[in-house]
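Following up on my earlier message about PBG. Here are the inputs again, as you asked, copied directly from the submission form:
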Amino acid sequence: MPFPVTRLRRLRRNEPLRSMVRETRLTPEAFVYPIFVCPGQGVRKEVRSMPGVFNLSVDEAVKEARETYSLGVPAVILFGLPEKKDEVATGAWADDGIVQQTTRAIKREVPNLIILGDVCLCEYMSHGHCGVVRPASGAQSLGAAVAAPGAAVTDYEIVNDATLELLARTSVSLARAGVDIIAPSDMMDGRVAAIRKALDEARLTNTPILSYAAKFASGFYGPFREAADSAPQFGDRRSYQMDPANLREAMREIELDIEEGADMIMIKPAMPYLDVIAAARERVDVPLAAYQVSGEYAMIEAAARNNWIDRDRVMMESLLSIRRAGASIILTYYAKDAARLLS
Ligand code: PBG
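Thanks, got it. Here's what our run produced:
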């Protein structure tokens, strides 16, 4: 019998050997931990569909930020649940908005933690869309257009350019409050250019932009919308977020955002879109982030709670896959737990 020429198993025999030939490693320096901030004092309310994730009042968010930093995770991304919502997203750009307040409080206590500000309007709009909503030409009023939960997409529109102004205003307000990285997640066209211009005009030239460049219209955001109270009251987000079927279009989104001035780009969700991450890694040279979103987290948690999978193992494997596909930065609800396992 001829002896086999190649024996890959030789290097798999024990952990020291496996570790020596390992191609990809996870480090906590790559993680960004999402925090949801709500009004009040001493509030720590668990999100029903995301066990282990909480709505936190500012004081509790500061504690969470301190713990995150102490575990070696360098960054958090803040999402706000405002006191009031309206049709111009005042809570997003008000200088005393909930994320602005939280940013100042965290910067006082944990000055070296990097703060990312998610720039979007859906949490602050009474209708829950990421942009300004207008009745479509022909429809009499927005009220009539959207009265029925089943309102047709032809009855209203999400206005692109009017939204840019609010996104730019929000970005400047967040950066002034101390946010280190502006992360627009709205998916309007031209927002990166509009935000860059507004930041530069406000002399915030050192503030980088991490754009959610390829953000897909995904069912995996379900639990987040509960956590951030940001579900659209009518219609869906398919007229601005990307069609899950499109890889080439994702490359165009990414290239446009870089041309407009994005310093880093993100792909979201992560695990169902590993091909998009890998293709982007081949194509562009800016730092690449991926968001392991709420539904990805919820699925793992649910299966683990049924003892159908080994939670820690699947958590680490999912994060490693995202890294292997090419993302250097991972936004994940597992940031703290994974950092603990890595230490
Ligand atoms: C805001 C925003 C969303 C997420 C991040 N920023 C929700 C959405 O687009 O509906 C989703 C994050 C997650 O699911 O964990 N637009």
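One observation from looking it over: DSSP finds 13 helices and twelve strands in the chain. Hope that helps, and feel free to reply on this thread.
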